[in-house]
C-alpha cells in the first residue's frame, strides 16, 4: 500500500518494494495532479526595536493595528533595513504557507493566485517572498502590481512585548481576470481563506467568488480555512452562506469554531459544521486535532485504537474509515477522529504561526494523492467508493499532526524540507490485509 504521487520520502505511508502500483504506474506514465489557491500575498517581518521607534511611527505598544498608509510602511521598512534591526523576514499568508508546504510534502506542483510587485529589488519584501517560496509553487499566474505587497511587522521591544503593524499594500488588488478558469477546473482542490471574503468592495473578493464558481461547476473540492475568530464574528452570516454554497472542507481552530457555531465543545462544533460540508479539520493547540466527516455505512471500518467518548459517545469508533462526500453515501454516517499532539508537542515552541496551515497542507496532500491514484488505477479496490482521501481519518490525523509538530519546532511557518520516515502502524497493517 504505497502513498502515491511524486515524493522524495515515504512520510507515514509504507512502501512495498514489489507492489502493483509501482508496476502499473510505470505503464500508465505520470499523471499531472496539482492544487490551486488564492492568497493575500504578505511578508512577515520580525525586528527588535526600542520603545522610541514605536512612538516615532505612531504605533500603540502591544497592540495589533493597521499602519495608516503605504508611505508609513515604507519609511518603517527602510528604517529597519538601514539600522540592521530585522531578525527574520519570511513569506507569509495562510494559503501561501499551505501551498508551499503542500509542494514540499508532495514534491509536486501547486498554483498560486495573488499579486506581486512588478519591479522587484533584491533584499526587499517581494524578493524575500519569492526566495521563501518552493520552486514547485507555480507563481506564473500572479498579477503584477506597481507597489508593495502586504507586510506584517512584529516589533519586539526590550521588555519582550510585541507590537504588530499591518500594511496591506496592494495585496487585495487581485482582479477576477487573473483567475485562470482552466487551471482551477483541472485542479484536485481549490484552497481558500476567509480573509479574502472580508471586504466585498475589494477586487480579491470577486476573484475568490469567481474561482469558487469555477470549482463548483467542475466538481473541484473547495477547501476553506477560517483565518481568525474576529473575522468569523464580523462576517459570520456571509461566511456561512459561502460555506453552504461552495465549500467541501473547512479548516479552523477552536476559537474560530466557537465563533462560527457558538459551541465551545470541539466535537459538537465539528458536528454542527458537518451540516454544511463534507470534512472538518479542527486544530486545538495542546489538545491536538480533530478530523470529522462522513462515510457510507457499508464502507465503515472499526478502529483498533482505544475508544473515546465525550459529548458524542464512542466518537472515534470508525476512525479507520475513509472520508466520503455526504452526497456519495447511500447511508451516510458521521465519523470522528482525534489525536493528541505528536510526542506531546515540541520541547520548545519557536513559533505557533502556521501550525494549522501545515496540518491543512497534509490533508490536501492526502486528497491529491487519492485523485492521482484514481486517475492511474481507476479499477483499484481503493476506489470502490468515491472517497475524498487516500487514507483513513485516523491516518490523515497522524500525518497532519506530524506536520504541525515540524512547523511548531522551527521559526518559519514554511517547511524547508519534507518529514522523516517512520515505521508502519497497526492501522496500515489492518488496511493491507
Automatic annotation (TrEMBL):
<comment type="similarity">
    <text>Belongs to the carbohydrate kinase PfkB family.</text>
</comment>
<protein>
    <submittedName>
        <fullName>Inosine/guanosine kinase</fullName>
    </submittedName>
</protein>
<dbReference type="InterPro" id="IPR029056">
    <property type="entry name" value="Ribokinase-like"/>
</dbReference>
<keyword id="KW-0808">Transferase</keyword>
<dbReference type="InterPro" id="IPR052700">
    <property type="entry name" value="Carb_kinase_PfkB-like"/>
</dbReference>
<dbReference type="GO" id="GO:0016301">
    <property type="term" value="F:kinase activity"/>
</dbReference>
<dbReference type="Pfam" id="PF00294">
    <property type="entry name" value="PfkB"/>
</dbReference>
<keyword id="KW-0418">Kinase</keyword>
<dbReference type="InterPro" id="IPR011611">
    <property type="entry name" value="PfkB_dom"/>
</dbReference>
<feature type="domain" description="Carbohydrate kinase PfkB">
    <location>
        <begin position="134"/>
        <end position="293"/>
    </location>
</feature>
Amino acid at each position: 500500500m504505497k502513498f502515491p504521487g511524486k515524493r522524495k520520502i515515504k512520510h507515514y505511508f509504507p512502501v512495498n518494494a514489489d507492489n502493483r502500483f509501482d508496476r502499473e504506474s510505470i505503464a500508465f506514465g505520470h499523471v499531472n495532479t496539482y492544487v490551486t489557491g488564492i492568497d493575500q500575498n504578505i511578508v512577515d517581518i520580525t525586528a527588535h526595536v526600542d520603545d522610541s521607534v514605536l512612538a516615532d511611527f505612531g504605533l500603540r505598544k502591544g497592540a495589533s493595528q493597521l499602519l495608516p498608509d503605504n508611505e508609513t510602511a515604507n519609511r518603517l521598512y527602510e528604517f529597519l533595513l538601514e539600522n540592521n534591526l530585522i531578525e527574520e523576514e519570511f513569506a507569509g499568508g495562510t494559503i501561501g504557507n499551505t501551498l508551499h508546504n503542500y509542494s514540499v510534502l508532495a514534491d509536486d506542483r501547486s498554483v498560486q493566485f495573488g499579486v506581486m510587485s512588478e519591479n522587484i529589488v533584491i533584499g526587499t519584501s517581494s524578493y524575500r517572498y519569492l526566495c521563501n517560496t518552493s520552486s514547485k509553487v507555480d507563481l506564473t499566474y500572479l498579477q503584477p502590481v506597481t507597489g508593495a505587497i502586504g507586510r506584517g511587522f512584529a516589533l519586539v521591544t526590550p521588555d519582550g512585548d510585541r507590537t504588530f503593524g499591518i500594511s496591506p499594500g496592494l495585496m487585495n488588488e487581485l482582479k477576477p481576470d487573473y483567475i485562470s478558469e482552466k487551471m482551477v477546473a483541472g485542479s484536485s482542490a481549490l484552497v481558500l481563506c476567509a480573509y479574502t471574503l472580508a471586504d466585498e468592495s475589494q477586487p480579491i473578493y470577486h476573484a475568490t467568488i469567481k474561482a469558487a464558481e469555477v470549482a463548483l461547476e467542475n466538481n473541484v473540492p473547495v477547501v476553506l480555512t477560517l483565518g481568525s475568530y474576529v473575522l468569523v464574528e464580523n462576517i459570520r452570516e456571509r461566511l456561512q452562506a459561502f460555506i453552504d454554497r461552495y465549500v467541501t472542507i473547512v479548516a479552523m481552530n477552536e476559537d474560530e469554531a466557537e465563533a462560527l457555531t457558538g459551541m465551545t465543545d470541539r466535537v459538537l462544533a465539528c458536528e454542527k459544521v458537518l451540516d454544511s460540508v463534507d470534512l472538518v479539520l479542527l486544530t486545538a493547540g495542546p489538545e491536538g486535532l480533530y478530523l470529522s466527516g462522513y462515510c457510507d455505512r457499508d464502507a465503515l471500518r472499526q478502529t483498533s485504537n482505544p475508544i473515546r467518548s465525550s459529548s458524542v459517545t464512542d466518537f472515534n469508533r470508525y476512525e479507520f474509515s475513509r472520508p466520503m462526500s455526504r452526497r456519495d453515501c447511500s447511508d451516510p454516517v458521521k465519523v470522528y477522529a482525534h489525536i493528541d499532539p505528536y510526542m506531546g508537542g515540541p520541547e520548545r515552541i519557536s513559533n505557533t504561526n502556521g501550525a494549522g496551515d501545515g496540518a491543512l497542507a497534509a490533508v490536501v496532500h492526502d486528497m491529491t494523492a487519492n485523485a492521482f491514484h484514481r486517475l492511474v488505477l481507476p479499477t483499484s479496490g481503493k476506489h470502490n467508493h468515491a472517497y475524498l482521501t487516500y487514507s483513513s481519518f485516523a491516518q490523515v490525523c497522524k500525518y497532519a499532526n506530524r506536520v504541525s509538530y515540524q512547523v511548531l519546532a522551527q521559526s518559519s511557518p514554511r517547511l524547508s524540507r519534507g518529514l522523516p520516515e517512520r515505521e508502519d502502524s497497526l492501522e496500515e497493517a489492518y488496511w493491507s490485509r
